[in-house]
Write a structure and sequence with these properties.
two-stranded antiparallel sheet, 201 residues, elongated, 5 strands, alpha+beta, 40% helix, 15% strand, 3-stranded antiparallel sheet
Length: 201
């Protein structure tokens, strides 16, 4: 949220701690609210988004499908903007961010997800592992496919065997395999033809 004014240090209700407070403007509804500075700088809205997502638009635990999509969105935001998140160093820590259309609007993300192949059990994957979370750079894949696309995955004997088996099934081209495994189409071709693959990463 937008930090407007410093309100000084206040004692919490228990009287055992003090914290800095400030005045913030909510980018979602335009409301002006008082919050602890650390919370205001972290929060994406004054709470109106939580209301819109959970009640107005039905993305609650009572709506299993909507709740699962909300968790996907929440995880994406945490990875990119919460330094204490488990995977932050591999996402926000190296500059991966979320497009403006999704960052402050779970509903917009939900609409895109339901129209682009989402179903329970699939994970959100970035096609370009160094690119942002954006409609043009995201897709839903199985957890195994997501693992293959991870930045720390290197080719090994198991992956090479898998590439050859997938090509033999007749459902993949060299180019398609290259995109899936983050290598070039020509490299995928050499692997399929049993030419050397070591050193390709």
């Amino acid at each position: 949220m937008k930090y407007i004014k410093n309100l000084g240090i206040r004692t919490c209700k228990t009287g055992k701690a003090k914290s800095h407070w400030g005045l913030f403007e909510c980018p979602k509804c335009g409301g002006i609210v008082e919050k602890q500075v650390a919370n205001g700088k972290r929060d994406l809205s004054c709470g109106c988004t939580h209301y819109d997502v959970h009640y107005k638009h039905g993305l609650t635990h009572h709506n299993r499908s909507g709740h699962d999509i909300y968790n996907v969105w929440r995880g994406m935001i945490a990875r990119c903007y919460t330094p204490t998140a488990k995977a932050y160093d591999r996402y926000g820590g190296r500059g991966i961010d979320v497009c403006a259309a999704w960052k402050n609007d779970c509903v917009a993300f939900s609409r895109w997800a339901t129209g682009n192949g989402w179903r329970p059990g699939l994970t959100l994957d970035r096609i370009n592992n160094d690119g942002p979370y954006h409609p043009d750079n995201c897709r839903f894949v199985t957890p195994f496919q997501n693992r293959i696309n991870a930045s720390d995955v290197k080719l090994n004997e198991h992956i090479v065997t898998l590439i050859r088996a997938m090509y033999s099934s007749g459902g993949f081209t060299y180019s398609g395999l290259g995109k899936l495994f983050s290598i070039s189409g020509s490299q995928a071709g050499r692997i399929v033809k049993h030419q050397t693959w070591r050193g390709i990463a």
